[in-house]
Design a protein that fits this description.
By secondary structure, the protein is an alpha+beta fold. The chain is built from 10 helices and 7 strands. A 4-stranded mixed sheet has the order 6-5-4-7. The longest helix has 15 residues, at 134-148.
């Protein structure tokens, strides 16, 4: 089995989801078993493979007897591994599933703008004619944040506002930074884009033609 194939194993994804969300954290077998809901034997076997591969590093626990693991930031593919996790099982997939199930009538598009070193994921949600309820969105994101072990920083804007974003706007700059990626494209939900209001010139031209 190749390293790439091994990353697809659900046990690996569950462990990396926890460890990569807190790169500076140290985790014992018991804590990983509790947070991933895996058997201790599965955790031991999986983390042993990840340590051997260089993805995790092993250290003595606080009691001096037990062993703990943490993310190996010197691993040659550490940045790529975090990017893969962000774009798939660790963030993009669960966020996409939540938005498409809870807010399919209002969310037109969604983007992940990036992730900081503390594991906070910045999310941009674009709504259409219907505006997602603020309390519902906040509650859903808080629940999801606890589930994936990452804090979510969420921006909600209309499709008209999104269309007007330029490179000088904060959100527009992040969208064009090369780090952002789309997790819900237009047409993947039942949401209808917001109707664009006519400008003064457009309205004047119509009256003139009439």
């Amino acid at each position: 089995m190749s390293a790439a194939d091994f990353l697809l194993a659900p046990e690996v994804q569950k462990l990396l989801k926890v460890v990569l969300a807190e790169p500076a954290g140290e985790f014992t077998v018991g804590e990983l078993a509790r947070r991933t809901k895996l058997d201790a034997a599965d955790v031991e076997r999986t983390q042993a493979h990840l340590v051997t591969s260089g993805i995790l590093t092993e250290r003595a626990g606080e009691d001096g007897e037990s062993m703990a693991v943490c993310a190996n930031r010197s691993f040659v593919f550490y940045d790529e591994l975090r990017a893969i996790a962000l774009k798939s099982f660790a963030a993009a997939e669960p966020i996409r599933a939540m938005l498409r199930s809870r807010f399919k009538a209002s969310v037109v598009r969604a983007f992940i703008l990036g992730e900081d070193e503390e594991g906070t994921v910045e999310l941009l949600v674009v709504h259409g004619e219907l505006v997602p309820d603020k309390a519902d969105m906040s509650a859903a994101c808080q629940k999801l944040s606890a589930s994936i072990g990452r804090h979510l920083k969420v921006h909600v804007i209309s499709s008209n506002t999104h269309a007007r974003l330029g490179s000088r706007d904060g959100l527009g700059f992040k969208l064009n930074s090369g780090r952002a990626f789309e997790i819900i494209a237009q047409g993947q939900t039942k949401a209808k884009p917001q109707l664009r209001r006519e400008g003064f010139l457009q309205s004047a031209r119509k009256r003139l033609w009439a």
